[in-house]
Design a protein that fits this description.
By secondary structure, this protein is of the alpha+beta class. The chain is globular, with a radius of gyration of 16 Å.
Length: about 190
């Protein structure tokens, strides 16, 4: 597994310039770290993309049927975190109260908000340490619940602020959405791996 290619540019590119840069190169996926460096993200393999989509669909159906407010996002959505980093979780959700505070202009860009819930799914090209660092960054910036699903080492890591990371050594488990989504259970064993 490799870490993503990072171009050390520091703060020479403003948030607006980075947004325009991403739009001009929309066939490529980028993130940006809190120092302003540009991170080239490898496209997700087809199987991992399907896995991500299955999870997104399960969560979306549950949220729709339980009339959960807020917004659910796919992996192509960028968010500007409070520390200045721009990240694109594989699956994310922002509470309605937070989303409604954003201007329409902010909603059309990399919204300046940290998702309340994130999922990162490790693809074949992902370095586990890099993903774990991203999960820590989400928690430090206001995320309330995060799941890191490592298909290749058959592990799941549950993140919550100010709590120890919970680790499972199997993908044949059920993940619950507490405390954000009481009653929601994602049966990972039912999703083709």
């Amino acid at each position: 597994m490799n870490t993503p290619v990072t171009i050390k540019v520091g703060d020479i590119m403003s948030e607006d310039e980075f947004f325009r840069f991403c739009r001009m190169n929309e066939m490529l996926d980028f993130e940006r770290d809190s120092d302003g460096n540009i991170i080239f993200m490898s496209p997700t393999g087809s199987f991992t993309g399907s896995f991500n989509s299955d999870i997104l669909i399960e969560i979306g159906i549950w949220m729709h049927s339980h009339k959960v407010g807020g917004k659910l996002f796919d992996s192509s959505t960028g968010f500007t975190l409070p520390n200045g980093a721009v990240r694109s979780p594989d699956v994310s959700w922002v509470a309605k109260e937070k989303w409604d505070l954003l201007s329409n202009e902010d909603k059309e860009r990399f919204a300046p908000v940290c998702p309340d819930f994130v999922i990162e799914v490790r693809s074949k090209s992902d370095d586990l340490k890099y993903l774990r660092d991203k999960m820590d960054e989400y928690m430090e910036n206001g995320c309330q619940l995060g799941w890191l699903i490592d298909r290749f080492d058959q592990k799941v890591y549950i993140y919550q602020p100010n709590k120890n990371i919970i680790e499972f050594d199997s993908l044949d488990i059920q993940l619950n959405g507490e405390p954000l989504f009481p009653g929601f259970v994602l049966d990972l064993s039912a999703i083709e791996k």
